[in-house]
Write a structure and sequence with these properties.
Layout: H1 7-15, H2 20-30, H3 32-45, E1 52-54, H4 62-73, H5 75-85, E2 88-92, E3 96-100, H6 108-114, H7 116-121
Antiparallel strand pairs: 1-3, 2-3
Length: about 130
């Protein structure tokens, strides 16, 4: 299961009454490692003029890795996080998540990061099975 959904929130969802804030709070509490990692990357972005900031530290264990994968593989979760923080997320491997400023999404830097060559250049033997 990706998210720990309370019966109350599930009931609201069945009525179509869930706000973005409620959804994001569910994500934050359900996927704490993913939330902390993405929050840190977004925080790093706020301390620089660079078009993006990223995480290059692998997760400490499989549970953490799974949280990050679930957060970034789900369109709904990823979209909620992006709206909450006002960034565009990009993802490589099992851990390299980057937060881009919205203005940078139409840039060579962004296109290089999400390109097949960018993915291939981010490979290494120690990350082969991540």
């Amino acid at each position: 299961m990706s998210l720990d959904v309370s019966p109350d929130l599930l009931e609201k969802a069945e009525r179509g009454e869930v706000t973005d804030a409620e959804f994001v709070e569910c994500v934050r509490t359900s996927l704490p490692y993913a939330w902390e990692t993405i929050s840190r990357v977004v925080g790093d972005l706020g301390t620089t003029e660079a078009p993006f900031a990223d995480n290059v530290t692998p997760p400490p264990d499989e549970t953490a890795r799974g949280q990050l994968l679930r957060a970034l593989a789900s369109d709904a979760i990823r979209g909620g996080i992006e709206r909450h923080f006002g960034v565009k997320l990009a993802f490589q491997n099992c851990h390299r998540v980057a937060a881009f400023r919205p203005a940078a999404v139409d840039s060579d830097t962004y296109r290089k990061f999400i390109s097949p060559t960018g993915q291939l250049r981010n490979q290494s033997p120690e990350l082969r099975d991540c």
